[in-house]
Specification:
415 residues; alpha/beta; Alpha-Beta Plaits; Elongation Factor Tu (Ef-tu), domain 3; Rossmann fold; 6-stranded antiparallel β-sheet; 19% helix; binds adenosine-2'-5'-diphosphate
Length: 415
């Protein structure tokens, strides 16, 4: 008699190339390096992924949350996934495995649905929004189904004499619905395509304006865009989308997808405190939240706002003028400049250390929500600074860190 053939079924984790905005969040989040990418797609290694789900809630689009039941021997290889423009349909050859044998939770349209089951230890920031955050809309417009917006303003924010060319760009959706919340992002589809003939995929930008519009009551949003002139190695290169955006004129029409993001959101209860830490264009969501609070303050919001903002020099700090004009009793602003001639290098974490007693006061308050946005390199330094401050003021950081994450009170977005 023949021995019984063992048919192993894999619930294979896949990323939808039509929805993915290539933001790298999943690759950064994966605790076991199961996600990789080429110039086209982000893909999951079938032999490495253990379906721990750590990557699912942080994904701003939900593109990560796709699963196909396949025979293990026939799993889609990463080389095959790199060639995809669309996900394959679920084949009929393989029945879905019974629930108890599945190695991954079922696909979910709300990435936060699975948050309770995740080892939050593997993720550095919260994977859930603040309890009082408004419900965001996500993915209303996709690569296949973008909408358009018209440029109504494009202003350089940084001093003409500096190298950093950062723009404040306002786009208007006219009568197309495009509801956003502070902390969300949108995708811009630059025109043209890559050398191998593919259309460019979308580039993601944080929204810099509050939910009720850059101009209150208008259907518009603003973005903070830095013209990219170098790659990560410092070699000269022109960023495809940032140069396109920075060169736009009033009246130009852009293709937009999104909105994205369902966790990096602000609390809605008016007595909540915001501790915001950012560098450069990472100021976009902080500007959105601050402006929303400023408008709401007139209606009785009482929570404290404390901001740490780092830039090379005062001339290279986006929104320097408007920011420093905000009333001191509304926002406690701390600027850190790293390249002011004749002065020592100062980073946001140095400024936090100088204000340790006040930061500790905020850390002790269960109504404090922390937001970190900017350069990847700042994440370690900022978390270390929070740990040091907590330690100096009798707080047990590891326990506090877990609590902040569980309660949607520590949000990190670095790039
Ligand atoms: P630096 O002068 O060392 O580059 P950018 O202008 O490149 O967007 O950077 C914004 C600010 O963030 C700059 O002041 C930059 O300083 C600073 N920065 C760079 N690395 C870190 C880091 N690891 N932690 C905090 N700030 C940083």
């Amino acid at each position: 008699m023949n021995a019984p053939v063992s048919i192993e079924i894999l619930k294979q984790h896949l990323i939808d190339p039509e929805i993915c905005i290539r933001c790298n969040t999943c690759e950064e989040t994966c605790p076991i390096d199961a996600i990789t990418h080429d110039g086209t797609n982000y893909v999951v290694k079938p032999d490495v992924c253990n379906a721990c789900m750590a990557c699912v809630p942080p994904c701003p689009t939900g593109a990560i949350d796709n699963w196909r039941s396949v025979l293990k021997a026939d799993a889609y290889s990463i080389d095959e996934q790199f060639t995809w423009d669309v996900l394959p349909e679920q084949g009929t050859m393989v029945p879905p495995p019974p629930v108890e044998s599945q190695n991954a939770p079922s696909a979910s349209s709300d990435p936060t649905d699975e948050a309770d089951g995740i080892e939050v230890d593997t993720v550095r920031g919260a994977v859930v929004p603040p309890w009082s955050a408004a419900r965001p809309y996500v993915n209303l417009y996709t690569h296949k189904n973008p909408t358009t917006a018209t440029v109504v303003g494009n202003y350089r924010l940084t001093d003409e004499a500096t190298q950093s060319d950062i723009h404040h760009i306002v786009i208007d959706f006219g009568s197309m619905p495009f509801p956003v919340l502070e902390g969300q992002s949108i995708g811009i589809l630059p025109p043209g395509g890559t050398a191998d003939g593919r259309t460019h995929h979308a580039r993601q930008y944080s929204i810099a304006s509050p939910r009720d519009g850059e101009r209150p009551g208008y259907n518009n949003v603003s973005l903070t865009v830095k013209r990219v002139t170098q790659d990560y190695q410092g070699n000269a290169t022109n960023g495809v989308c940032s140069n396109y955006l920075c060169d736009l004129k009033k009246g130009d029409v852009v293709n937009v997808i999104g909105p994205f993001g369902s966790t990096f959101l602000m609390p809605n209860h008016p007595n909540s405190h915001l501790l915001m830490i950012c560098t450069g264009t990472g100021s976009a969501p902080m500007r959105a939240m601050t402006e929303y609070r400023r408008r709401r303050r007139l209606k009785g919001a009482t929570g404290k706002l404390m901001l740490f903002f780092g830039a090379r020099t005062k001339e290279e700090l986006p929104y320097f003028g408007p920011l420093t004009n905000l009333p001191k009793d509304f926002i406690d602003t701390n600027l850190a400049f790293s390249r002011t001639p004749g002065e020592p290098k100062r980073y946001v974490q140095d400024a936090m250390g100088e204000r340790a007693a006040d930061v500790a006061q905020m850390l002790k308050d269960d109504n404090t929500y922390i937001y970190v946005c900017g350069l990847k390199g700042m994440e370690d330094g900022v978390l270390q600074s929070l740990q040091d401050i907590a330690g100096q003021h009798g707080l047990e950081w590891d326990a506090l860190w877990q609590k902040l994450k569980r309660e949607g009170r520590l949000h990190l977005e670095t790039y």
